[in-house]
Amino acid sequence: MLALGVLLGDGIGPEIVDASTRVAEKALAGVAVEVRWRELPFGLEAIGDFGSPLPEPTLSELDELPGWILGPHDNAGYPEQFRGTLSPGGAIRKRYNLFANIRPARTLSASVRALCPDLDVVIVRENTEGFYADRNMYDGAGEFMPTPDIALAVAVFTRTASERIAHQAFQLAAARRKSVTIAHKTNVLTKTTGLFLDVCLTVSESYPDVEVRGEHIDALAARLVSHPRDFDVIVAENMFGDILSDLAGQLSGSLGMAPSINASHTHAMAQAAHGSAPDIAGRDIANPVAMILSAAMLLRWLAGQEDGTPALGVAADNIEDAVRRVLDAGVGTADIGGSASTSAFTEHVLAALD
Ligand code: IPM
Ligand code: MG
User: Fold this and answer.
1) Helices 289-304 and 310-328 meet at what angle, rounded to 10?
2) Which of 252, 279, 294 is a domain's end point?
3) Pairwise CA distance, residues 129 & 126, whole Å
4) Whose CA is nearest to atom 8 of ligand 1?
5) How far is the CA of 249 from the centre of ligand 2 (A)?
6) Ligand 1 near 123 CB (within 6 A)
7) pLDDT attached to residue 141
8) What are the pLDDT digits (tens) for 272-305?
9) Do 244 and 138 belong together in one domain?
10) What domain range is 135 assigned to?
């Protein structure tokens, strides 16, 4: 019996997370693995019930689990006192030291109207520090206003965090097209992104088969659009990686197609790269692909752990294959030019798993 956490989140979260657990459960049944979902309070609803978007009972349950699925959340929509602080998703990443945010962007099917029809990149995003000041403090806030007209933010770059994310990127690239691009902005941010670049280049020496180049983030963004096939793995600090992964997801067809996991060496969390899309919440039109594929990534990660069950990797392959076949058949949600609802698309994927 496999136990996994489920945090539905806000906006379209409940709809797409439900799609992902149904698909994962069926794929797991296909490889004779039974799963027990532990649904835990999280997000706006948890504020109402527990006075916190990430309440203590949720944390103590997560402590016992190797992995979970996190729906998108909308902290901008929370009551005032929960806004200026660490986002609940950021708090989970920090508490479990989920330092690697792995975000593939790949055009899955010719039937998807993609801006870059042959994109296949993975953004490896450092997930614990960098320019995102809300995650940078042990105590106190990394963003502050000495006067109403001045706002300051603290960036943190450490050798340790840069090293471990670089190893993730090079290991991944070694198993792919053997190329890593390091995103930086050393012409301006010489110390912070300079340390990140230097550390990544030093780590690259341990991977002689993988080609490496550093590139300024602005030029990199332009070239990702003009020459998408030049890129295999891109390693980036937190904010650059956040922005680039939305860009890459959209280039691959839709932000609604871009999955991710947040991982440490011992825990992983499936989380779509996109946000909670409150404007379309509850209308059964959101694209569930990112969330479904994030769940598949979680299963593959679990399979790859030292004591992992290989069957989980087979279930992950089967999910990806089923999603691709449904897309190839021309079924898709409105964001990719189709007319299927969230639930109808999910039913097609479930049928494709038969
Ligand atoms: C992401 C998001 C989050 C982040 C938000 C929801 C707090 O943009 O993971 O892509 O800033 O890290
Ligand atoms: Mg983002």
Assistant:
1) 160
2) 252
3) 7
4) 242
5) 11
6) no
7) 83
8) 999 999 999 999 999 999 999 999 999 999 999 9
9) yes
10) 115-252
